[in-house]
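Handoff note, outgoing to incoming analyst
You'll be picking up this chain. Sequence as last confirmed:
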Amino acid sequence: MWSNAILSVSKVLAEGAESGTNPDAGSQGFQINNPLPGVDNPVTLINKIIGGLLPIAVALTSLVILWGAFQLLSSSGNPEKIERGKKTILWAVIGLVIVLVAQGIAFVIQDVTGIKVTQ
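Most recent structure output, in case you need it:
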């Protein structure tokens, strides 16, 4: 019983595959629309992600530097709080440098290989 059902389904699917159509869609077939307009390959997707993350990283760095400055100003001479504020600012700058170096590596890859990896 189950084997007859499986064979009949397999036959229908095979006929649909031979004719290039989806058996459930009749003779029209089916098409999946791209949910990301303007993205047609992985390189373009990476470009869009990097292009969107870079301004966010710069904004976050600015906020963290301001937070570190607030820590310094509100330390009231406490050496631990002063050190914490300095470290906050230092790590914010290190994070921004890492992001910028990553962007620079993408530019170097583009120049060396000729593949457009940046916007």
